[in-house]
Amino acid sequence: xxxxxxxxxxxxxxxxxxxxxxxxxxxxxxxxxxxxxxxxxxxxxxxxxxxxxxxxxxxxxxxxxxxxxxxxxxxxxxxxxxxxxxxxxxxxxxxxxxxxxxxxxxxxxxxxxxxxxxxxxxxxxxxxxxxxxxxxxxxxxxxxxxxxxxxxxxxxxxxx
Length: 160
Fold this sequence. Notes:
mainly alpha
């Protein structure tokens, strides 16, 4: 898995260099900056994982157990389905509401955490993302279908 993710991160880093990966004065980060540096971080993590596997420094690296057991397959399937739902939701209802619903499902229902913790993440994560991307980095994230855009106008009025 680390080799596959390493190859994927290299491909993403190379592809993101087709866009500006530097800082654009007066505008913020170029369109390829975040994908490039996230891919670089993922590649370094994969290399570190491979190094630890090669040295056999962790119990997992010495294990002869299958990578995915029968007990873990349902949680993998639920996670893949939830992420697919998140991606579809981003295009329909936008990034912020999709992230909130994903947090409720994954933290509240799958993780079985308290509703206080679930609510804190479901509300806090979209707020943090909005402040980071829309306000600090002046980079808009998908708002979903056009009918959802007017809900953001009051926030834009506060910011600009």
